[in-house]
Design brief:
Length: 70
């Protein structure tokens, strides 16, 4: 499934920035790589990606917080 983020489910991505919602656990994901598991509507006007990491945790990110890993 391709979405306007230019990414697809199963693709490896890296967290390159965080917007304003910052918890300690989320800060730990900055610079980490994970796999896109699904897409979801963020606030009715955008699409975010749910990313799963090697430690089996998952959270969603805005598209501009992620960069595809090549």
């Amino acid at each position: 499934m391709l979405v306007n983020l230019g990414m697809e489910i199963g693709q490896k991505v890296k967290v390159i920035r965080l917007r304003d919602r910052v918890s300690g656990q989320l800060v730990d994901k900055l610079g980490k790589e994970g796999t896109i598991k699904e897409f979801k509507m963020t606030d009715g006007s955008g699409i975010g990606a749910v990313v799963e990491f090697a430690d089996k945790t998952a959270t969603w990110f805005f598209g501009d917080e992620l960069k595809p890993v090549e």
